[in-house]
């Protein structure tokens, strides 16, 4: 069984629900009822899934969203294969920040696929009105224009959360480049093996 | 979720695509290529450049190294920097030496307590694989990797060494999964093996790969250290980090996390260093939990970590970060918890490096005042933490001093040993010499006879009339017949006294003054004009200084007879000449003789003549 690492970063303003999203996916829990929640903070999670005969180790990284740390965010998404850019469906300003990350990811981390994720859909369903009524439209237009996949999720109900991560895994596995590495490595392993023999005899 | 409608924000896709036409998106930063094509493009260009200026590169490299070494010496003021140089001398010297890699390999293996520790810690694992083909294979893999690094350490750049290392981890990981040798072992053992191999190889190569002299790691260490010291006034409030410093429990956790972070420098293997970072970060989460109620988020964690880094000011921070980045198994950094915390540490460091008044939410003026040291923080606990840093430095200094003391003691011990050896050697030589003397007493008596022998060669010269004889002659000037008898008699009488003379040089010959006198050369010309002079001193002076040198090298005992012989001719000549015309006529010939005596060869010749003459007689 081949082991492949998949690094996923979560980006978004503070309080948009990044941690909740991760908790929902990894531990299938939300806020108070967190049976798996350890006492330590929940900023990192690893989850292993089997897809197409490949053992995929997902490392999910929560990040500091404050603008103060903008300059360092690059360090976070270095080597990431997927980025979930979150915005709060009820707050227009969080979408503005989301656009900034999409732009930056596109320009800096070429091999990182970007996913737009609206959070707190349940609030919307409950009739909570966003501070910008046209937000949903704007986002959809933007997503189409930049060819970014958009998911509207709720960590509270778990709606669309698994769908989002499944999509990420599928996209990752379907890109031959990501699995190519594995084959390359096998070829590489042959060459030095011969050398080991040479050095010993 | 995809729409078929024409998007309003659409950018022309062709502009976004890679210049190479590979179908991926391009980017202005990558000269219009996509990342993959750009990398290939760069590699091609780099390869070209390297081919054309390979020799130059190594030259300039050397210059750069020596330059950086030179500029180092200039920044002597800060005590810390001095300390680093001391440290570096101790661990850079061996790498600078030109050594066969095998020698170096042995040196690295020998007396390495860290390696022993790793072996002890992994005893169960090693027992599990002991005496199986796996053990042999693991050893083989490590060996070939270490040799690879040792052979390339001076030729390749650190990035390439890192690549070799990462490739090794990857290949070994694949080998564990695909090779039939490892088919039977459970996957948890495989994981442990992979970890063990990394730990062992990196600990072994630590001295070579940590802060190597051909990188700028050291300068960066000093820069960040200086920067952090400048920022020691930054408080938790400035960073908007919520640490409840009033709680003693929280304070205790702050100290623990600082210690954890400081421990990173003394750990060797990358995963051990990473473990220190993990400990530190977990403690930060614990203290945040105490401070913020409930689990902390990334937005609370990062400022707290920055705070801890600022207060800890860890030694060789950049070197440690670079070492982990380059030589820690990349997969561990990518998806492991350690990798996450490590990335946060990198972020914290980069925040500290780029920190401005704005990022601390304070006025430019206040910021500058703090930076220049005009203002000092009012918070007592924060100030106490500053002392914490100083205490840490003191500890480091103490260990450094201990180290130096140990070295000093060692040197003293070796010096003492050397002294004893010298004394021993002296005694031995003395003993040997006295033994030889005891063993060959005849040789000594023989050597005592040597002057006698030398004299016996000139034995006939004793029969020569002594210099006093001229005093005798005047009495018998007219009495030619008696003169021969007289000479014989007087020579017999004088012989004993002459032997004595030959043993103790005549006090009238003051050689040192003759030789040391530079005026001899100067007076030479003058002497040539005064050939007639009967003065023996000037006659002798006429002779080449070589003659005197020869005399000096010979024993003084030889001196007198030769001189005696030289002095003799004037006296003897009358007798030697067959047609003897009496002393009066002979006397007119005397002045010419000193001229000949000046030349040693003629002097010898003369003495030969004399001996033959005496034989004839
Ligand atoms: N109703 C609702 N609340 C949410 C949802 N996701 C997050 N929240 C709340 O939003 C707040 C911030 O969430 P958190 O995950 O800590 O945000 P982060 O700062 O981005 O990590 C918390 O009080 C959550 O309970 C959601 O899907 N629905
Ligand atoms: Mg969070």
UniProtKB/TrEMBL annotation, chain A:
GO terms for molecular function: GTP binding; GTPase activity. The lineage of its organism: Eukaryota, Metazoa, Ecdysozoa, Arthropoda, Hexapoda. Belongs to the small GTPase superfamily. Rab family. It comes from Camponotus floridanus. The keyword Nucleotide-binding applies. Pfam families: Ras. This is Ras-related protein Rab-24. Keywords: Nucleotide-binding.
From TrEMBL, chain B:
Keywords: Coiled coil, Metal-binding, Zinc, Zinc-finger. Gene3D superfamilies: 1.10.246.120, 1.20.5.4770, VPS9 domain (1.20.1050.80). GO terms for molecular function: DNA binding; guanyl-nucleotide exchange factor activity; small GTPase binding; zinc ion binding. It holds the Pfam family DUF5601. Residues 54-69 have a biased composition (Polar residues). InterPro entries: DUF5601, VPS9, Vps9-like, VPS9_dom_sf, Znf_A20. Residues 401-435 form a coiled coil. Residues 218-361 form the VPS9 domain. Residues 48-79 are annotated as: Disordered. GO terms for cellular component: cytosol; endocytic vesicle. GO terms for biological process: vesicle-mediated transport. This is Rab5 GDP/GTP exchange factor. The keyword Cytoplasm does not apply. Residues 12-46 form the A20-type domain.
């Amino acid at each position: 069984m081949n082991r492949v690492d998949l690094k996923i970063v979560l980006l978004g303003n503070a309080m948009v629900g990044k941690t909740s999203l991760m908790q929902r996916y990894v531990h299938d829990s939300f806020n108070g009822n967190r049976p798996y929640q350890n006492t330590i903070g929940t900023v990192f999670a690893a989850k292993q899934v089997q897809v197409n005969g490949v053992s995929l180790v997902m490392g999910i990284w929560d990040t500091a969203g404050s603008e103060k740390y903008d300059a360092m965010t690059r360090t976070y998404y270095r080597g990431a294969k997927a980025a979930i850019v979150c915005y709060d469906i009820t707050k227009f300003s969080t979408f503005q920040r989301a656009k900034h990350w999409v732009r930056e990811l596109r320009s800096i981390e070429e091999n990182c696929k970007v996913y737009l994720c609206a959070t707190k859909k349940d609030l919307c369903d409950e009739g909570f009105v966003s501070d910008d009524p046209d937000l949903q439209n704007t986002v959809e237009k933007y997503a189409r224009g930049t060819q970014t996949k958009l998911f509207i999720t709720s960590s509270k109900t778990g709606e669309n959360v698994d769908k989002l991560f499944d999509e990420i895994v599928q996209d990752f596995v379907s890109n031959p480049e990501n699995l190519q590495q594995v084959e390359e490595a096998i070829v590489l392993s042959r060459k030095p093996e011969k050398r080991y023999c040479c050095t010993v005899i | 979720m995809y729409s078929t409608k024409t998007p309003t924000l659409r950018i022309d896709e062709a502009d976004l695509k890679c210049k190479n036409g590979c179908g991926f998106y391009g980017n202005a930063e990558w000269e219009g290529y996509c990342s993959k094509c750009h990398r290939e493009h760069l590699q091609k260009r780099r390869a070209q450049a390297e081919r054309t200026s390979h020799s130059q590169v190594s030259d300039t490299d050397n210059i750069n190294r020596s330059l950086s070494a030179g500029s180092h010496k200039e920044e002597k003021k800060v005590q810390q920097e001095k300390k680093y140089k001391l440290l570096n001398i101790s661990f850079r010297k061996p790498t600078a030496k030109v050594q066969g890699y095998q020698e170096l390999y042995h040196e690295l293996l020998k007396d390495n307590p860290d390696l022993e520790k790793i072996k002890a810690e992994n005893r169960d694992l090693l027992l599990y694989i002991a005496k199986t083909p796996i053990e042999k294979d693991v050893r083989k893999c490590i060996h070939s990797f270490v040799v690879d690094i040792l052979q390339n350490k001076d030729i390749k750049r650190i990035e390439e060494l890192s690549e070799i290392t990462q490739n090794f981890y990857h290949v070994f990981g694949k080998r564990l999964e695909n090779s039939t040798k490892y088919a039977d072992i459970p996957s948890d053992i495989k994981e442990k093996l992979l970890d063990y191999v990394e730990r062992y190889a990196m600990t072994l190569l630590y001295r070579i790969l940590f802060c190597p002299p051909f990188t700028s790691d050291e300068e960066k260490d000093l820069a960040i250290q200086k920067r952090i010291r400048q920022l020691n006034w930054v408080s938790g409030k400035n960073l908007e980090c919520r640490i409840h410093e009033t709680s003693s429990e929280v304070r205790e956790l702050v100290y623990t996390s600082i210690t954890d972070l400081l421990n990173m420098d003394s750990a060797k293997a990358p995963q051990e260093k990473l473990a220190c970072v993990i400990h530190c970060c977990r403690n930060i989460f614990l203290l945040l939990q105490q401070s913020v109620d409930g689990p902390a988020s990334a937005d609370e964690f990062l400022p707290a970590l920055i705070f801890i880094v600022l207060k800890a000011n860890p030694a060789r921070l950049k070197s440690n970060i670079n070492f982990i980045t380059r030589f820690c198994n990349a997969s561990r950094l990518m998806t492991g918890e350690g990798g996450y915390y490590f990335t946060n540490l990198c972020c914290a460091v980069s925040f500290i490096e780029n920190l401005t008044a704005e990022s601390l939410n304070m006025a430019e003026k206040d910021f500058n005042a703090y930076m220049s040291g005009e203002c000092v923080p009012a918070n007592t606990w924060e100030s106490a933490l500053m002392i914490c840093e100083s205490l840490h430095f003191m500890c480091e200094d103490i260990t450094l001093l201990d180290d130096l003391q140990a070295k000093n003691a060692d040197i003293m011990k070796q010096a003492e040993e050397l002294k004893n050896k010298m004394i021993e050697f002296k005694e031995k030589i003395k003993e040997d010499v006295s033994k030889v003397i005891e063993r060959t007493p005849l040789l000594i008596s023989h050597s005592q006879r040597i002057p006698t022998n030398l004299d016996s060669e000139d034995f006939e010269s004793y029969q020569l009339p002594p210099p006093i004889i001229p005093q005798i002659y005047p009495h018998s000037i007219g009495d030619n017949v008696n003169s021969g008898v007289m000479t014989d008699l007087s020579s017999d009488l004088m012989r004993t006294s002459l032997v004595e003379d030959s043993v103790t040089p005549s006090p009238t010959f003051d050689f040192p003054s003759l030789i040391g006198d530079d005026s001899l050369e100067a007076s030479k010309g003058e002497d040539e004009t005064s050939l007639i002079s009967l003065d023996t001193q000037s006659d002798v002076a006429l002779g080449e200084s070589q003659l005197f040198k020869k005399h000096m090298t010979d024993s003084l005992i030889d001196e007198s007879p030769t001189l005696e012989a030289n002095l003799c001719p004037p006296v003897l000549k009358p007798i030697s000449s067959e047609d003897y015309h009496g002393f009066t006529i002979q006397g007119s010939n005397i002045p010419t003789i000193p001229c000949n005596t000046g030349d040693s060869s003629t002097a010898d010749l003369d003495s030969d003549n004399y001996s033959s003459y005496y034989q004839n007689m």
